[in-house]
Write a structure and sequence with these properties.
Elements (H helix, E strand, L loop, with lengths): L2 H7 L19 H29 L21 H10 L1 H31 L6 H11 L8 H11 L6 H5 L6 H12 L3 H9 L4 H12 L1 H17 L2 H6 L8 H12 L6 H23 L8 H4 L3
């Protein structure tokens, strides 16, 4: 046997075996039907409370039985919306909730992007300690801070019955900071190094290079932050005493506790207010739900 034959017979000379890809067999018709039935039942169970809330807000006379979920058309009306609007003012409550929420979102995005970028990209002393503090804030209940915040904002700053007083405690969101930091860490460092060599400043680098690549993080932080201030009750209830300044969640709670007992149909009026409060949140998630799927950042910088 020659040396060439020995080399050919060795394992190193043999071609590498390609791993076998085991394909899952396609689902049968019965399995597909069963999966569709299970998903349909889950969807109905999830959507039924929203459906019942809308139907209950349109009923002339409340019907708490199972048959109330499918009322007769003669028992449907929009008078409940007019009744609660005459008591608390749905449009003014929506306006106050919108101003409060938009202010919180603006502060969250601006400070979240700046702090997240500094923690992920910039090199400075104390960066690790700052990130540890951001994580520590997550375990501190907001209820523990309400009294000192109220003394500081209402008494020292005099910002009670003021939009700024409602917004300040939520201006910096540690969850948004962590989200932006994790997204910025996924970006290739070569992009930043090449831009700095070309003389690009940090703010221009952040605006022109980093932000377009972390667009899913912007929408994710916006959606996650939107729910908090829109449904927030305790802090606006403490900081606002004038009914004209209260968000819709606070106005609706005051209506349930003080006015609903004297209404002709308190059940329907309360559900009408709940529909108005929930509608913007539901619409927002329907429009932006696809942005919850994070895109592959690496594919966007190749080529």
């Amino acid at each position: 046997m020659t040396i060439a034959d020995e080399r050919a017979s060795t394992p190193e000379a043999s071609p590498a075996r390609t791993p076998r890809v085991v394909k899952k067999p396609p689902l049968t018709r019965a399995q597909t039907t069963l999966r569709g039935v299970v998903l349909a039942i889950g969807a109905l169970a999830f959507l039924f409370p929203f459906y019942y809330m809308v139907i209950g807000s349109l009923q002339t006379k409340p019907d708490p039985t199972v048959a109330g979920a499918f009322p007769h058309p003669s028992n449907l009306t929009v008078e409940n919306y007019a009744a609660i609007d005459s008591r608390i003012g749905l449009l003014s409550g929506l306006l106050n909730s919108g101003i409060f929420t938009v202010g919180v979102l603006a502060c969250t995005l601006v400070f979240g992007v700046l702090v997240g970028y500094a923690l992920a990209v910039l090199q400075w002393r104390g960066r690790g300690v700052t990130f540890a503090l951001a994580l520590l804030v997550q375990v501190v209940p907001f209820q523990l801070l309400i009294i000192p915040l109220y003394v500081l904002i209402a008494r020292n700053y005099g910002l009670s019955d003021n939009y700024l007083g409602m917004i300040l405690p939520f201006a910096i969101n540690s969850t948004a900071v962590i989200i932006f930091r994790q997204y910025f860490l996924q970006l290739p460092k070569e992009l930043f190094e090449a831009a700095r060599i070309d003389g690009t400043g940090e703010f221009r680098l952040l605006w022109n290079i980093a932000l377009p690549l972390v667009r899913p993080a912007l929408v994710t932080a916006l959606l996650l932050t939107f729910i908090g201030p829109w449904n927030e009750f305790l802090w606006p209830f403490l900081i606002t005493k004038e009914a004209s300044m209260q968000p819709l969640a606070v106005s609706l709670a005051n209506y349930i506790s003080n006015v609903a007992a004297t209404a002709a149909n308190p059940f329907g009026a309360t559900l009408a207010g709940a529909v108005v409060l929930a509608a913007p949140v539901v619409l927002l998630f329907i429009v932006f739900q696809r942005y919850f799927i994070s895109t592959d950042v690496g594919s966007s910088v190749k080529g």
